[in-house]
Amino acid sequence: MNTFDDVFGVAPEVQASAPGRVNVLGEHTDYQGGFVLPTAIPQTTTVSLGRNGTAQHRVYAADLNEEASFAPGANADAPFARYVAGALALGGATEGLNVHVTSNVPMGAGLSSSAALEVATLRGLRTMGLLTANDVQIALTAQRVEHEFVGVKSGIMDQMASSLADTTTLLYLDTRSLERQLRPLPAGTELLVIDSGVPRRLAESGYNERRAQVEEASRLLGVRELRDVQDPAQLDRLEPLLLRRARHVVSENLRVQEAVQPGLSASAFGQLMNASHASLRDDYEVSHPEVDRLVELLQAQPEVYGARLTGAGFGGAVVALAQSGRAQEVGDRVTALYGGAAQRVVP
Predict the structure, then answer these.
(1) Could you give the angle at the alpha carbon of 120 between the alpha carbons of 203 and 2, nearest 5°?
(2) Could you report the per-residue pLDDT of 295-339, keeping only the tens digit for each?
(3) CB contact at 8 A, 44 and 104
(4) I want to staple 344 with a disulfide (CB 3.0 to 4.6 A). Which of 8, 268, 331, 339 is the partner?
(5) Region(s) of the chain under CATH 3.30.230.10
């Protein structure tokens, strides 16, 4: 794999990294002001940067062996480079930079490889002295990259998780106020994450469509966001499609709030995860038959308390809550049963 020195002929000035994330509970709630419960995964994206003395940015993605060039402030033609282009533009890079990217966060798996790239790039600009921002401001800037340069109207969860979460606790985040707390996993448990091998593409999927549907539901209900609906019975006046979409968001917020109650058992937490998957599959309709099959295999294992798809859906990864010390064994067993291109990501 080509290094920064191999590609650009000099050493980088700075290097910065950011992790991917897995969302344990609270899916498709963050763009409606709701509650989420992600954690960071061990896999990270690393960005190396250095000034090049020209009026062009050059970006090289080592894992793809692809390169792109574009002017400061401009977007990139190559889709892989748009995340970097946006971060450079919004992060204050007005002179040409060389940027080298390498990552072991699975791409297209719903584990926020894009947020990790955005946050890592912005952290690098901060280290270079081109950007003055705290970790929350970096997350907010990274979200703008998605909106303005990538064309995905993402919520704030992925960027906040990549910027603030760690791998040992859950980040309980109110996506409206950005208030947050670190919460432990249920006692005696660990997480298992498996990439189904079914790739998903947010900008090409129904993500923006789902967002528009719940925004319309909020408008019809006369609320700022579905976060403000506490009783699912309030949704009954919506037409059937919007009712299902809104019911997922409202019930998912209630599940997250229940999941962080002190002393909740692993079994009860797992049941919330199972209910979340059913809601994503049936009401929000963002699952996939192969993902459903993988979730069902996990839910059938005696060492697993609960399992669900994670991320925006339409393919990607699943997350399960397993007995401590058993996740790797269960993951290997289930991937063998599932076959195909599934791969265990965590642990």
Answers:
(1) 95
(2) 999 999 999 999 999 998 999 999 999 999 999 999 999 999 999
(3) yes
(4) 331
(5) 4-174
158: annotated active-site residue: yes
* 26 within 8 A of 37, measured Cβ to Cβ: yes
Three-class secondary structure of residue 85 per DSSP: helix
pTM as predicted = 0.93
Query: What span, in angstroms and rounded, lies between the C-alpha atoms of 120 and 17?
Result: 5
The CATH classification of domain 185-346, taken from the options 1.10.3370.10, 3.40.50.720, 3.40.50.150, 3.30.70.890: 3.30.70.890
Phi and psi for 159 in degrees, rounded to 5?
Answer: -70, -40
Amino acid at 41: I
- CA end-to-end span of the chain: 25
- CATH number for 4-174 (one of 3.30.565.10, 3.40.50.300, 3.30.230.10, 1.10.3720.10): it is 3.30.230.10
CA distance 277 to 298: 12
Catalytic: which of 158, 174, 292, 332?
158
